[in-house]
Amino acid sequence: MPIPAYKPPKRSSYDIVIVGGAVIGSSTAYWLSQRLGPGASVLVIERDSSYEFSSTALSTSAIRQQYSNPINVKISQFGIEFIRSFVERMTAFYTDEAPPDLGFREHGYLYCVSPEGVEAARDRVELQRSLGAHTVFLEPGPLKDRFPWLNVEDLGGGAWGARDEGWFDSMGMLNGLRRAARCSGVEYIDNAVTGLDVEESRVTTVHLSTGEAVRCGTLVNAAGPRAQQICAMAGLSIPVAPHKRYSFVFASETPIPGRMPNVIDLTGTFVRPEGELFLTGNTPLDNGPADYDDFAICHEEFEDCIWPALWHRIPDFEALKVKQCWTGHYEYNMLDHNGIVGFHPEIANFMFANGFSGHGLQQAPAVGRAVAELLVDGAFQTLDLTPFRYERIPLNEPFLEEAVI
Fold this sequence. Notes:
This protein is an alpha/beta fold. The chain has two domains: about 180 residues, FAD/NAD(P)-binding domain, CATH 3.50.50; about 150 residues, D-Amino Acid Oxidase, Chain A, domain 2, CATH 3.30.9.10. The chain is built from eleven helices and 18 strands. The strands form three sheets. Strands 1, 2, 8, 9, 10, 11, 17 and 18 form an eight-stranded mixed beta sheet that branches. An eight-stranded mixed beta sheet has the order 5-6-4-13-14-15-12-16. The chain has a two-stranded antiparallel sheet with strand order 3-7. A hairpin with a 4-residue loop joins strand 10 and strand 11. Helix 1 packs parallel to helix 7. The protein is globular, with a radius of gyration of 21 Å.
């Protein structure tokens, strides 16, 4: 298939330039297009429109409400609503074919809880239920009754989200958002940002790898793991860097009966069904920042860490065979594992939408809507994401999220 010819920007100036066209950037573009209409002066710059190495494409594409912060619970609740209504929202933009069905698998999450962690887990469940989530805490006996294949001998119980949690098609969401934005007047180009001009505390010009330069009214940094690169071009800094996450798909000689949830072990290893196969991963032992282009797999993670954890928690996972594996990058916020959303206080037209630490896909619908509200209305109109403001970064005031995988 021939490579499409490069298309330069259609204009020399845009009201809004979004750097990064994966799910956060495209969600922002979608919500802006719905607010501003076909006359929107919005440019999305994506360095690789194949999305081969994007965090969106390489994610495990799951959504949960089991968080320790109320705002993260509410963000996911809107995410679920958006996923369930996705076909309806996209219908107007798919006149020649059916909109993508995100294939939501509502199997839930099951967090294994140590005996020492029971009180904190019960508190989190109570918080989530007070916000409308369907999480329940199961003591070891009822937990074993519900999931007889689970080893509960060293557990104090488990937190189970029976509804509104599961996994879905990440690229279906991205492709739908991108198509809807483009159909509504947003322009996308396949290019990379190489520099920013800042004059009188404002970003004025965006320089591209192909030599062009475009003026901008507002710049939105949605560059995912490369967020700090874009910040540095404006003389700014955020504690966001790419961290590798390894995913393995395996077959088991012994099937797991019933409706298996996404099981989160005490070790941080997770496992869930994928048809007749299973998807697993964990928090790698070598968990420092990675090079932006380093997507090498570490097979030892499966042999040395993941498999022993799986076998201990689910004894039927004695005989396994890896069928597929890949490496993705988290845009990891090293301060507090939460997103950074909002304007910079000094460079007043520089907008952050960064640092979601593995939660970006499930949080994209709400975050894109919130960024659009800031840009169009000057303030949050639906969910108040003020706790994600940039100002906490230089003050070193973490807004911590305990439930990080």
